[in-house]
Amino acid sequence: MRLLKQTAVLLLSSLLSGTAASAGLYDYGSFDLRGLPEIGTAGETALSVGKEIRLGKFFSRQARRMLPVTDDPVIDEYLASVGQKLIAASDGVRFPFHFFLVTDPELNAAAFLGGSVKVNSGLFHYAENESELAGVLAHEVSHITRRHLAQFIEASSRSNKLTFAGIAGAIALSMLNPALGAAALTTAIGAGIQAQITYTREHEMDADSVGIRTLYKAGFDPEGMVSFFAKLSGLTGGISIPQGLLTHPVPEYRVAAARSMAAGMPKRPSYFNSPDFYFAKARIAVRYERADPELLLAAYQKKLDRSPSDPEALYGRVMALMELGRFHAADEALDILVRKTGRKDNLFVIDAETDISIGLGNSKAMLPRLEQLAASRPDSLTVVLNLANLCISAGQAKKAVSVLDAYERKHDDSPLVYDMLARAWTAAGNPGKSKIAKGRYYALNDNFGESNALLNSALTYTKSRLDRAYIEGLIIRNHELEREDQELSESVR
User: Fold this and answer.
1) Which residues are catalytic, by number?
2) What pTM was estimated for this model as a whole?
């Protein structure tokens, strides 16, 4: 697995984001566990929570435009479930969090303003258990709840006389595109680069200390953070760091500090590592790492020969067989997984079962099971999308529209819902409604030009004053968001 180039500006951007794992580097502060700073909410008076949320949404829109964001409802719900455990155990939560996966082999995660947390698929490749994954997310959640980035932006605006938007935009760009972000960061930070790196050192120390306590309070093994830091230490050995940036202790200090904190926590009898973590590892490996599914299938089978109940290999075999179009074999493999794990109504299982049913032409037979699940889990995006997909496959497009409309009335921020809704309306013979749904899909993907083209086209299909007003309102909203994004983007230049 390749590591990002070791440039000064990229290292700075990683330090600003609270993660330098993509470069294989971290701001390794020497920890004094007796006197970590209580940083708290010092930045609130200048960079308000409202402004932070606005900038966070800008970051999310730009991410969807610039990065290979993985629209996988099962992975998204899994990340959210781990994140919510950490958030429930955190202090200072001021806004909803949004965890999203990016198909990128780099070992990296990044926290931005307003609760946005980007997670690279490479993180699953390196993490060996759920506590290691949760340890990284706990660190990122702590950066957000402690408002480290907000404070950094406030301090930089005072010292450099720059706008919040200019600094925030430069940091966002550095996370999304290091090559473009380099110039933006140099412009925004300028000659004060060394002072800014020193400033973030406290934040890294604080995020580790708060993060490992949050990890433990949420029920995860604090050793997960220790073992993952040790991996980072191994990865970074021998990397050449620019002389001007050698201002922090070596990685071993951070490992030792985390180990000391973990050792001081009361021991629990055991820590539960959900099989979902291993299902997620296999799902990402098969669907998003572009490996040969035949080779993966052989590797998973070999693993099962040694350990017949291994959850990663059990689910990986199902996914690889589906990828190869061998649905009968996949169905048998899924039955074995359910028998060995007992997770019949698990979201990973439900999603695979649906795809297998469609692949075998058994959509109608599967509908009652999904309808029952949707009744008990109306807010599960995975369940709703799978039910809608089954309905379309079974020739019941209008039913799919009804299912998706009910979900969309409460959750209007999922591109996948609008993409499926566009399919459903097309199958139901209503191109105007399909264009509206697809227009909303493109808007959520930061493609306002395509969105407005579809919405304007939809106007030609409707004479209802109410429907026309709704479409025109969407177009106006698109223009507002596009103008806002342009203003924030231009402030970086």
Assistant:
1) 140, 208
2) 0.85
